Amino acid sequence: MTDSHDDDRVFVRSAWGTNRYVYNPDNPVGRVLIVGSLLFAAGAMVLLHYRPDLLNGSDDWDPSELRSAVTAATAELSREKQFGPGTINYEDILQADIAKHGHSSKDALTITLASDPPEDATFYGGTEKADYTVTADGADAAFCLNVHAMKRKRVMAYDSVTITIRDGACPAS
């Protein structure tokens, strides 16, 4: 049941038993909003169908973007001291953190171990060291990350994680 004054309101309470407000189809502005919402949703679906990469970042990295993402990610990883080079899949951790600080695709990043694989120091404590080369599609820059982490015996967190960044790829060992 609608009151006669409901016809002039743009929003009315839903007749479906909820307390939500909905567009009023009896009001001309409400009808325009209903049709406009449907056209907007349909247009967005068509646009995403033909341009699925529209919501993703660009696949190619800019050299300055890569530098700032590497710098921010390594600073964060050093500060948190949660992961070190002896951690399983440390390359994936580096890749995810660098991508988080950039605007381009994570899949365009390449992290390669350039040194001997580090030994996990969880059981015996000590030092974990490794070198990683960071490159990205579209960026002609490469960075060498020297990761040095100290850990006490049978402790999950690291005492310190130091990551130094050098321009260029790491020398092969």
Describe what is shown at a glance:
The chain is α+β, with helices and mostly antiparallel strands and 173 residues long.
Furnish the topology, listing elements before pairings.
Blueprint (H helix, E strand, L loop, with lengths): L10 E3 L7 E3 L4 H23 L12 H18 L9 H11 L8 E5 L12 E11 L2 E13 L8 E8 L6
Antiparallel strand pairs: 1-2, 3-4, 4-5, 5-6
Helix pairs in contact: 2-3
Textual characterization of the structure:
There is one protein chain. With 173 residues, the protein is an alpha+beta fold. The protein is built from three helices and six strands. It has helices at 28-50, 63-80, 90-100; strands spanning 11-13, 21-23, 109-113, 126-136, 139-151, 160-167. Strands 3-4-5-6 form a four-stranded antiparallel sheet. It has a two-stranded antiparallel sheet with strand order 1-2. Strand 1 (11-13) and strand 2 (21-23) form a beta hairpin. Helix 2 (63-80) packs across helix 3 (90-100). The longest helix has 23 residues, at 28-50. The model has no long low-confidence stretch (mean pLDDT 88).
